[in-house]
Amino acid sequence: MSVYVVGHKIPDSDSICGAIALANLKNAIGEPAIPARLGELSPETAFILEKFGFEAPEFKTSYAGEEVFIVDHSELTQAPDDIAEATIVGIVDHHKLGDLTTSTPLECWIRPVGCSNTIIKMMYDFHGVTIPKNIAGIMMCAILSDTVIFKSPTCTTADIKCVEALAEIAGIEDFKELGMDMFKVKSAVEGTPVRDLVMRDFKDFNMNGHMVGIGQLEVIDLSVFDDIKADLETDIAALKAEGGRHSMLLLLTDIMKEGSELLIVSDDAALTERAYGKATENGRVWLDGVLSRKKQIVPQLQEALA
């Protein structure tokens, strides 16, 4: 029986590339595994897979009766809907410990690094398995994406060393140039439906009984949103109502200016002031130096909602 390796709902590059890389490792050590996904590829992820010659993993939403290895999260809200009917055999993650639970022992690789693929590189090293050139390429790109080409405060020395090693294996001479090409793909928002943009990198969190949705769009120039910002605000308000959420946040992140404009609709008008020390003006606030949802948005928000 093969184990399915799958990331979170609305998968990002780390989630997809991590599933492919980890499934390859498991197969190499004699543990049959199949990479899978819970949603459509983002434009960035599609760019990465095409560059290194990969098809998208199998689209699979039901895992009842299956063995599952979770990648890039440990949150019930981000897992398959029927995860309670599956057997979780392992977790690889770089976020806070979530609320997934198991009835049997499992393999856990959880590290405070910038990307799950950094941990998967450590797993290859631990098992003494050579990383194929194309696998090294997608792993490297996932780390560059999650660490915002090393600009994110989540980036660690381990992430940088792994990218350098993976670039050498993949034969990529200028990995930072490739990283910028990835973010140019992310920045191409013209013609994309507003709902698709809001949901491009979106996660739901249960914060002390409050359901909070947080999306993020990382671009190289925030001016790409000038003509559609009001539409984005209308859509996050609609999503809040549709999902019965306490709050909806959308981070518009400028990787060159190294900061984010936060758009928010919330039942708590003073939420950003308590969480980040800055009040919103018409549902917007600029957060200088904020690039990471994981480290600079979620923990402070969870504390403010305690």
Automatic annotation (TrEMBL):
Keyword Transcription regulation: no
Keywords in alphabetical order: Hydrolase, Manganese, Metal-binding
GO CC, any one term: cytoplasm
Segments crossing the lipid bilayer: none
Identification of the protein by name: inorganic diphosphatase
Catalysed reaction, written as an equation: diphosphate + H2O = 2 phosphate + H(+)
An example Gene Ontology molecular-function term: inorganic diphosphate phosphatase activity
Domain DHHA2: 179-305
Its EC number(s): 3.6.1.1
Cofactors demanded by this protein: Mn(2+)
InterPro entries with a match to the protein in the record: DDH_dom (IPR001667), DHH_sf (IPR038763), DHHA2 (IPR004097), DHHA2_dom_sf (IPR038222)
